[in-house]
Amino acid sequence: MILVSGLNPGILKWCKIKTMVRIWFLIVVFSCLLCSSAAASSIPDLKFSVHKLKSGIKGHTLLIIGGIQGDEPGGFNAASLIVTHYEILSGNVWVVPNLNFPSIIKRSRGVYGDLNRKFAKLHPKDPEYQTINRIKKLIIDPEVDLVLNLHDGSGFYRDKYYDKLHNPNRWGQCIIIDQENMRTGYFSNLSRIADSAVAHVNKHLLKEKERFHINNTQTKKGNKEMAKTLTYFAIKNNKSAFGLEASKSFLTAKRAYYHLLAIESFLHQAGIEFKRKFNLSEDQIKKAIDHNIHVALNHRKILLKIENVRKRLNYIPLKKDSQIEFQVNNPLMTIVNSGNAFRVYHGNRQLTYLSPQYFDYDFSLDAVDMVVDGNHRTVPFGSIVPVKNSFIVKDLKEHRVNIIGFTKKGVKNESGVPVTRKNIHKKYSINKKGSIFRVEIYKSKKFSGMVLVDFDGKGLPDFNVAFKEKTPGWSKKLF
Ligand SMILES: [Zn+2]
Predict the structure, then answer these.
(1) Res 70 pLDDT > 70
(2) Beta carbons within 8 Å of 256's beta carbon, 6+ residues apart
(3) 456 in helix, strand or coil?
(4) What is the CA radius of gyration of the chain?
């Protein structure tokens, strides 16, 4: 159903304003509209997030930074996995997994130039001035002992020229230090610490030719390019800092594998204990990156499971004439307004495209009663219900139930009707596998809320996804 609205009452009011004022206003409004639509369609305004993983047990603090350049997914996915899949048991780990978030979404090295050349001096009018100031503040925070900046570099670094892919001008598979030692501070012997990390990585190589090396850029001795970087800014401020480079010759999961190996060595060396929720292998990393990712819309009246989602979801019931509020449970995810629709991103990848249908919202209900495989259950909107064989949404007096993909002749309100996997059309599922379906509740023409039923769901873990709001500003708003 498509809703056509009549003349907006706001516009009628306008007619009463004196002509001159009206024209002036229209010019202002029109130019604002132009600006905002240009901004929306070009570069999204996204700030990086800071995730402070605190163990509660005294120890050193390691700062991990990913995504300084937007086209290096090995680094920023590794950083994001630390947030989502590691538990810190002693000391602290702070993670910025998405430093250059707008460039990550645009899959660009840097939409405003190279962010890693803006640490020595920067014009206050530079669009990334605030980003640089925020990250500098974090680096020089008295709590931070050690800084890791994660990159994906081309080819394979070697200290001598071997061939086009293996030579001193390549950056892949190395740990970068700016100098051998620092005069003061914890972890001042940079080359010895990097040595240990390289040795740890090389113990776990997937192939012998993927060996790591140390790359000392000797920045102080006149390396003008490296003098503008994040790590050198840290060194100058007495913070031990290292650049980690995985090779761009590999796919993302393999790059993240090498990053995580190196990071774990730094954690060991800093005495920070941790627990990882997956086995360190390419295959497990690939699964972990998309594991359990969700988007909640409009105060969780709608929850969408994005893992294995279809490329396009149609008729998403959004709220008429108002901002869309959303939450994500992964630091690399966001939603970008794109003309008449919304694109859901995870890092460099657009995972799905939400095509909306606009409704007024009804707030008279926040849960539905269901019978799931014979068991009675009250299901709050924004939940995913695991179903083995069948479910029934119990009769609602004032509300109507629409199970997307289910039709039964003569039935308009699909409450009270048993639904099995067999009598629901697979192509209406929200996931490619064809197992997760939308159950939508309406009151007259107003949208009340949605739950998902998952015929492959394994039970409790998915039933109520906990949104870990580790950072203020985790919720974002869009028009
Ligand atoms: Zn880089």
Answers:
(1) yes
(2) 74, 77, 78, 81, 246, 285, 289
(3) coil
(4) 26
Report CA(153)–ligand 1 centroid distance (Å).
6
Any residues with CB less than 8 A from the CB of 241 and at least 6 apart, and which?
Answer: 139, 146, 147, 148, 149, 178, 230, 231, 232, 234, 235
Residue 205's SS3 state is coil
The answer for 264, left when phi > 0, alpha when psi is -120 to 50, beta otherwise, is: alpha
Distance from the alpha carbon of residue 118 to the mean position of ligand 1, in angstroms:
13
Task: Name the token pair of 111.
Answer: 């939409």
Ligand 1 centroid to Cα of residue 72, in Å, is: 6
Residue 68 CA, ligand 1 centroid: distance in Å: 7
Domain ranges of the chain: 51-289, 293-479
Report which secondary-structure segment, H or E, holds 284. Answer: helix 282-290
Is the pLDDT at 11 greater than 90? The verdict is no
- How many A from CA of 439 to the centre of ligand 1? 44
Closest to 307 measured CA to CA, from 432, 460, 465: 432
Q: Which of 39-53, 177-191, 231-245 has the lowest mean pLDDT?
A: 39-53
User: What does the mean pLDDT of the chain come to?
Assistant: 88
What six digits make up the tokens of 119? 């640490």
* Burial of residue 121 (number of CB atoms within 10 Å: 0-12, 13-18, 19+): exposed
For 81-107, what is the mean pLDDT?
Answer: 97
In words, the CATH class of domain 51-289 is alpha beta
CA 243 / ligand 1 centre spacing (Å): 9
Residue 201 CA to ligand 1 centre (angstroms): 19
Torsion sign across C-alpha atoms 248, 129, 221, 238: negative
